[in-house]
């Protein structure tokens, strides 16, 4: 757990609760081997490589655990308790990148027209309009609001191009929650999350999860749409240099579109969330 810093005491996704078996499955968390299983009475259990029972929570369709002692409960997503939503366990994608890089990429708006062409963005609609970013001290979370972007197909349920409004929230170092325009119900927000399991500093499992208002689209299509989007991201993530996320402001040159990334990096550094980060140029 070299370089773990304060991140050792945070909650991380380690598997889908629906996929647990009594036989268990082996995985890793921050370089340490762990095993995730379902007990005979149906509860989730997570153990370290030496057999130590680790803390467990089951929420948002996933099993969460920690190698340390979390000082606070797992962050809340109120929409997870809202009647009428469909909850989509998208599955898992393994990515050869820093877990922090995976989150930062999720926060990036400017790549939409170039990586998700004719879906989440399209030329010539490449300009990122002004938006608001803040670190909310009371919640201790990074938020970006008033984000707007033209999208040819904002969601599987969308029937044409619309200007989509976004809000981004970072409630934990390797998790992000996205609120975006809900095409069938413009007065509501669709919720799309990125839960990242840090296997090592340069390797992670990404578990997307969604809470949507969509009574029409088959579940398989919802899953395939979101997997397609993230697989487009994976090729970019696995070729980023440096592999770890730079926290020194002078190591990469930000643009106006990178305000969320700047706040995220500042927040990570403030809290000593350094697993998967690079502090100085090499």
Structure characterization notes:
The protein has 282 residues and is α+β, with helices and mostly antiparallel strands. The protein has two domains: 1-74, Single Sheet (N-terminal domain of TfIIb), CATH 2.20.25.680; 85-278, Naphthalene 1,2-dioxygenase Alpha Subunit, Chain A, domain 1 (Alpha-Beta Complex), CATH 3.90.380. Helix content is 16%, strand content 34%. Strands 7, 8, 9, 10, 11, 12, 13 and 14 form an eight-stranded antiparallel β-sheet that branches. A hairpin with a 4-residue loop joins strand 9 and strand 10 (141-151). It is globular and about 50 Å long. The protein starts with 11 loop residues before the first strand and ends with a strand.
